[in-house]
Fold this protein.
Amino acid sequence: MPVRHTLLLRALILLGLILFGVFLTADAGLLSLALESDRSYISWVILGCYAVLSLQWLYLILEMSRAHADLEETRAMLQGAAPGELHLIDDGLQIGAQAVPSGYFADVISDLIRRGKLEGGSQVLLDALGERLVARHAFGHFAADGLLKLGLLGTIIGFIMMLMPVGELQDFDPNVLQRMLGEMSGGMAVALFTTIAGLVTSTLLALQYEVLGNAAVRYVSEVARTVEVNVIPMLRGST
């Protein structure tokens, strides 16, 4: 794998550690015990949602890794270019005879050229880029909180299932008490396992999106530095 895709490599390492933890849990029999003991099936819903959200996170990581790679490629092209070689064409942006990879950075440069006003214009575009990335990644943080809420919902349902047999108790027959204790233990299992599922998946998803968020912040910072150091001087020199 190329060194320029270090973000994707780190994400795959993190995902590998998570999958290894799942394998150890399943190998110890804890995963099957939790799923079989959850009569509410909320644990299944939580794990299913976490799997789908992790796939979405991996797609966003791949997109951000490509954006970092395209930024490095475009920066190398800018460093070897002369004033006047950066210009817009019908199907995108071009530096000399080389086409600039399409993406966030190309959009910023294109908008900056179209704007024409260099003083203060770059900051507006960079702020817009930051807000664009934040909006694209915001759902992950909401989803992490939602997984935790699902776990707490399972806790409440488990306690309700645990206390329902108590309201039906009419005598102290040992057989009735034994059946009641069995139903109460089942409700307690639902409460505990759904809580654990919600806490673990919420924490892991929040960690994954923290990695993505930090990468987005670094990307915007690198875009700002490249615009100020390479792009704006080239545009000024061509005027």
